[in-house]
């Protein structure tokens, strides 16, 4: 389990302790070194399985923490305000010396609970975990393969479906990721947020996040955060929509991050048989957890 093994369906990835890392971007020694990364009490980590709303929460946190972002006086990309901790080999433009960053530091990560710095378990620093219904994660990730340079493309959705269930995608098994964080929640000062709740009532979720973070925003500021974090606004916001990610990482000719931003798009690609097979696996693997997802935009609030 602690050894590095190849990932069957994607030669760009390696598996380590159940998680799938990019060979070129996440060196194992670097990942191991994160255990000792020095945590400050006011650090905030935002954690997601890929395609669960990472850039959305980056935008929300940037807006909550930065007045200059809210009022437009500072033109800094959200990926620089809430940078990744996971990558050892990024070009200088997107590589950070986290130790020299001023507090409070905001971080983005796809890591499972096993790999995050031990210091996060002091319960002073905060973790926000964003989860999304896995059928929509799959649809989104399938499209993302076309633009992610360091990912092997699936020939069709059926192939991808099997690959996802085998956990042969970036970050490994969705089931392990969510279960891991959820069942270890008592080790962390953590808030779970659902993508679907953000779609249904972003205002309430942003308020909940502010309360968790101890950030008091007046009504006007809160409205700005919510407004600037809507899909339509973010789609046109180059500071938030990742349109400036270097082409060595993303081929944006083939699509973009801000794709559909809805609940239930999986219905446009899953066959009935795939959906039923997935439901069965979901029940087997998640039936014991008190986590419910919204699978369709038409479901009641
Ligand atoms: P879709 O591909 O289903 O459209 P991540 O940032 O984790 O990679 O997730 C990307 C997904 O989040 C994409 O889903 C993207 O459209 C969606 N997303 C990003 N910002 C959003 C927003 N403001 N509102 C709704 N969805 C958003």
Could you outline the blueprint of secondary structure elements for this entry?
Layout: E1 4-6, E2 13-16, E3 19-22, H1 28-33, E4 44-48, H2 54-65, H3 67-70, H4 78-81, E5 106-109, E6 126-131, H5 134-144, H6 157-165, H7 174-183, E7 190-194, H8 195-200, H9 202-213, H10 219-228, H11 231-235, H12 272-286
Parallel strand pairs: 4-5, 4-6, 6-7
Antiparallel strand pairs: 1-2, 2-3
Helix pairs in contact: 2-10, 9-10
Bound molecules: adenosine-3'-5'-diphosphate.
Adenosine-3'-5'-diphosphate binds next to α2, α5 and α11.
Structural class of the secondary elements? alpha/beta
Rg for CA atoms: 18 Å
Q: Beta fraction of the residues?
A: 5-15%
Which second-level CATH architecture applies?
Answer: 3-Layer(aba) Sandwich
Oligomer: single chain
| End-to-end gap | 41 Å
What is the count of distinct domains? 1
CATH class reads Alpha Beta
In total, the number of strands is: 7
In spatial order, strands of the major sheet run 5-4-6-7
Any idea of the CATH topology?
A: Rossmann fold
Q: What is the N-to-C succession of helices and strands?
A: EEEHEHHHEEHHHEHHHHH
Largest sheet: 4 strands, parallel
Gross morphology is globular
């Amino acid at each position: 389990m602690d050894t590095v093994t190849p990932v069957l369906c994607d030669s760009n990835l390696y598996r380590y302790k159940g998680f799938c890392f990019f060979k070129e971007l996440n060196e194992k020694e670097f990942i191991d070194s994160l255990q000792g990364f020095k945590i400050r009490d006011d650090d905030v980590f935002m954690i997601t399985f890929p395609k669960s709303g990472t850039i959305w929460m980056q935008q929300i946190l940037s807006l909550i923490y930065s007045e200059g972002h809210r009022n437009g006086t500072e033109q800094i990309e959200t990926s620089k305000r809430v940078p990744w901790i996971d990558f050892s080999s990024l070009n200088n433009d997107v590589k950070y010396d986290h130790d020299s960053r001023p507090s409070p530091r905001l971080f983005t990560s796809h890591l499972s609970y096993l790999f995050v710095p031990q210091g996060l378990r002091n319960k002073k620093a905060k973790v926000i975990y964003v989860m999304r219904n896995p059928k929509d994660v799959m649809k989104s990730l399938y499209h993302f393969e076309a633009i992610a340079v360091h990912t092997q493309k699936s020939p069709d959705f059926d192939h991808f479906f099997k690959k996802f269930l085998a956990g042969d995608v970036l970050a490994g098994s969705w089931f392990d990721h969510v279960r891991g964080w959820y069942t270890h929640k008592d080790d962390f000062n953590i808030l779970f947020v659902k993508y679907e709740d953000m779609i249904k009532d972003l205002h309430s979720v942003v308020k909940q996040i502010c309360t968790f973070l101890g950030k008091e925003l007046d009504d006007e500021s809160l409205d700005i955060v919510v407004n600037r974090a809507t899909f339509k606004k973010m789609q046109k916001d180059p500071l938030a929509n990742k349109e400036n990610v270097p082409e060595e990482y993303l081929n944006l000719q083939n699509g973009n991050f801000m794709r559909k931003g809805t609940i239930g798009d999986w219905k446009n690609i899953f066959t009935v048989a795939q959906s039923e097979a997935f439901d069965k696996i979901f029940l087997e693997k998640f039936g014991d957890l008190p986590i419910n997802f919204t699978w369709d935009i038409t479901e009641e609030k």
